[in-house]
Automatic annotation (TrEMBL):
The chain crosses the membrane at residues 7-25, 45-68. Keywords: Membrane, Transmembrane, Transmembrane helix. PANTHER family: BSR5223 PROTEIN. This is DUF2905 domain-containing protein. InterPro entries: DUF2905. It comes from Paenibacillus radicis (ex Xue et al. 2023). The keyword Transmembrane applies.
Length: 73
């Protein structure tokens, strides 16, 4: 199979899984409002910095990519 086609198929599957997890997981996981995320509200001004959420997502995605690379060797 062509490597580009394989990459597109894998990318599509990953996007479908991410979409399902986003839709279902949003009800059960409190991502975006974790302790350590910074929220500033003053009057009509709101700023939100999801620092801890970004770190957790980065670690999870790094582990997934590591596992995928490990299985494709």
């Amino acid at each position: 199979m062509n490597p580009v086609a394989k990459l597109l198929i894998i990318g599509g599957i990953v996007m479908i899984v991410a979409g399902v997890l986003w839709a279902v997981g949003g009800k059960f996981l409190n991502l975006g409002r974790l302790p350590g995320d910074i929220a500033v509200e003053k009057g009509n001004f709101k700023v939100y910095f999801p620092i801890v959420t970004c770190i957790i997502i980065s670690v999870v995605l790094s582990l997934i990519m590591y596992i995928i690379r490990w299985f494709t060797k």
